[in-house]
Design goal:
Layout (H helix, E strand, L loop, with lengths): L1 H15 L2 H8 L3 H15 L4 E3 L4 E3 L1 H29 L3 E7 L1 H7 L3 H7 L3 E7 L13 E4 L9 E9 L1 E5 L1 H7 L13 E4 L7 E6 L2 E6 L2 E5 L2 H9 L4 E5 H10 L3 E3 L8 E8 L6 H17 L1 H6 L11
Parallel strand pairs: 3-4, 3-5, 8-11, 8-12
Antiparallel strand pairs: 1-2, 5-14, 6-14, 7-12, 7-13, 9-10
Helix pairs in contact: 1-2, 1-3, 1-4, 2-3
Length: 313
């Protein structure tokens, strides 16, 4: 830092022909400017400026050093401008990690983002497990958990979603609607293996709680596999409402025991420290948060189905 300041004082003095004017231009005292110039000459072991009571002139060594320093400072200013422009105008490859569901969910939005920021190329890494962001060079990850084990990873909340039970109309017609959570222990279940304690469901309804052990007819680490099985009437699906919301609206799936609430999931964006955040990361995070807010996803994904047969009057 001192060397940088020394060079600035020297170049300003050479161009303005006055140490006091150089000090004023750089916002420092005359004494400080003089110390920087003397320190530079002492470090180089050469006289750069001839001083007299009337004026300052560059020595022969000073002339050559000035030309080199002028080029150097110009290059540094250009580098600063380029870095600043990049921070305002996103460029490069934006690497996103998300589950299959969220990858499919955000894919239709990417044309709007890339139209807004055409110099960004988006790479989506589809995975139902959580990658280490640093080791895998991931810029932003969409994750359904409330915190990160690494204190260097920041999170920004997108939405909350309920976890619910659903069946197909075919399953209802064949097996009927479950009347109580206790009945689930004898019903065929479609279980997501990455859930915490997937074979034990803990329900809450007001002040009441119920803990039920269930047995999987089909289990998978991908919600789309389980959803496909549920649509075919294979069993009772346990999944976040965000995954089956469109099926509920279309009537392809029916919520059951909806007055009971399972532990909810918080959907977050995970990314490395906000310090010196690149423009591509910042703009994508803001873009996705804005979209989730406009679509009011949390309200849709946390609502209760009051038409459920088992819902109270």
């Amino acid at each position: 830092m001192d060397r940088w300041r020394e060079v600035e004082v020297f170049v300003q003095t050479a161009e303005l022909g006055s140490l006091s004017k150089a000090a004023e231009a750089l916002g420092m005292s005359n004494a400080a400017a003089s110390r920087h110039l003397s320190s530079l000459e002492e470090r180089l072991g050469a006289r750069l400026i001839h001083r007299s009571t009337r004026r300052l002139t560059l020595s022969e060594v000073g002339e050559g050093y000035y030309r080199n320093c002028k080029t150097f400072l110009g290059d540094m200013r250009d580098a600063d401008i380029a870095a600043s422009a990049t921070s305002l105008n996103p460029t490069g490859v934006l690497r996103i990690s998300a589950s299959l569901f969220f990858s499919v969910h955000i894919a239709p939005l990417l044309d709007k983002y890339t139209a807004r920021y055409p110099n960004v190329t988006v790479h989506v890494e589809v995975a139902n497990r959580y990658y280490d962001l640093v080791d895998n060079n991931i810029d932003v990850a969409i994750r359904a958990r409330e915190y990160e084990n690494d204190s260097g990873i920041m999170i920004r909340r997108l939405a909350q979603t309920r976890r619910i039970l659903t069946i197909s109309p075919e399953y209802r017609d064949k097996h009927g609607m479950p009347d109580s959570v206790e009945m689930l222990s004898s019903r065929p279940m479609l279980i997501y293996t990455y859930d915490n304690n997937p074979n034990e469901l803990v329900f809450r309804r007001g002040d009441d709680t119920a803990q039920v052990k269930v047995k999987a007819l089909l289990e998978s680490n991908d919600g789309h596999v389980l959803r496909a099985a549920a649509l075919k009437g294979m069993g009772i699906l346990v999944q976040p409402k965000c995954l089956v919301y469109d099926d509920l609206i279309a009537g392809r799936l029916i919520s059951v025991l909806d007055e009971w609430d399972l532990p909810r999931l918080q959907i977050n964006l995970a990314f490395q420290s906000r310090r010196h955040m690149s423009a591509k990361v910042r703009t994508f995070i803001d873009f996705l948060v804005e979209h989730f807010h406009q679509m009011d996803y949390e309200s849709k994904w946390t609502s209760f189905d009051r038409t459920s047969r088992s819902a109270p009057n």
